[in-house]
Amino acid sequence: MNSKPAGLQTLLRLFAYFGGVVLLACLLSPPLYWVGTWLAKIGVLPIVEGFPFHRYFSRSVQISAIVLLWPAFRGIGIRRLSDLGLQPNPQWKRDLVSGFLLALVPVVFLGAGYIFTGVFSIKPGFDPMGFLRIGGTAAVVSTIEEFLFRGVLLGLAVAVMPRCAAVIISAALFALVHFMRTSRQALEVPVGWLSGFEQLPLAFSSAPPWPLLGWGFLSLLLAGLVLAHATLQTRSLFIPIGLHAGWIFGQQSLQLVAPFRPKPPDVFLPWVGPNVVGGAVPTGLIPAFVLLATWLFVWVYLRRASRAS
Predict the structure, then answer these.
(1) Where are the alpha helices (DSSP H) in the chain?
(2) What pLDDT does residue 182 have?
(3) In a domain, 87, yes or no
(4) What are phi and psi for residue 253, nearest 5 degrees?
(5) Is residue 1 part of a domain?
(6) Are 240 and 167 spatial neighbours (Cβ–Cβ below 8 Å)?
(7) 274: helix, coil or strand?
């Protein structure tokens, strides 16, 4: 680890980075909405036709996070990925595929159990092309989120605090951020320069109700702990990216093929509930046990991989 990025000053600069991301997103989202709406109207970009403002705001946050990342690295003292504890991985293909399968296979068995017991019911006429969209989403989201959460956040946290605290805090923040959903806004509501700032007080307004919120947080926390463990053990992001992609692909594919049926949605809790956060996060004790089993599989894989190397 580089000694320069350590200390309270690094934490303050990291918080300044997150504040800058939010501020830039608030300023960027209205003109991005206006330009996107105009391009859709004249037929240049019809794919964004009808997109509400909250979707532009979400994309603005992602764009801002990427744009400000390099200045943040320079200010903190990060010059190379090794400063974040990451090293080249000559077995990256093996780790990427193994991580994907270690996550996906337990989810497949979990989904089969759900369908067999009638908790999830196969819906007729689902679109098979949806699997391509889910695969693309899994690849992009897992790569971006693992770089930001395990590469940047966990790497900096390990540099300024004990490893155990860094793992827990980074996993908790990973879980919390997933419930920060911008508020849905009707298309007829006019968008002005302050519309982005108006989204901030409503950041958690789209979060699921309790107790689904608690169970969803538990699943994301366990996932964050597994991903952090894999990152620190391999000093690489390829197993975490594979794990993350496998979870997203498995859970969203289940949601595509067989939605949760029981009403009310918490009728089977604490054992199982509907997926939350866009259908990608399972809820209940059974999914928590599956995540713990996946953690055990990852631990065994890493031990065997270290002996073979």
Answers:
(1) 8-41, 53-67, 69-76, 92-117, 130-145, 154-160, 163-177, 195-199, 212-234, 238-257, 285-308
(2) 66
(3) yes
(4) -65, -40
(5) no
(6) no
(7) strand
- Residue 2: its pLDDT value, please? 45
The Cα 59–Cα 63 span in angstroms is: 6
Domain range spanning residue 207?
8-308
What is the torsional sign of CA 242, 245, 250, 253?
Answer: negative
Is residue 211 assigned to a domain? yes
Burial of 55 (0-12, 13-18, 19+ CB in 10 A): middle
Token code pair at residue 73:
């690295």
Q: Which of 154, 283, 304, 138 lies closest to 222 in space, CA to CA?
A: 283
The predicted pLDDT at position 3 comes to 46
Q: Which residues of the chain have pLDDT under 50?
A: 1-6
Cα 160 to Cα 1, 176, 244, distances in angstroms = 11, 21, 26
Distance CA 258, CA 76 (A): 46
Domain tally, the chain: 1
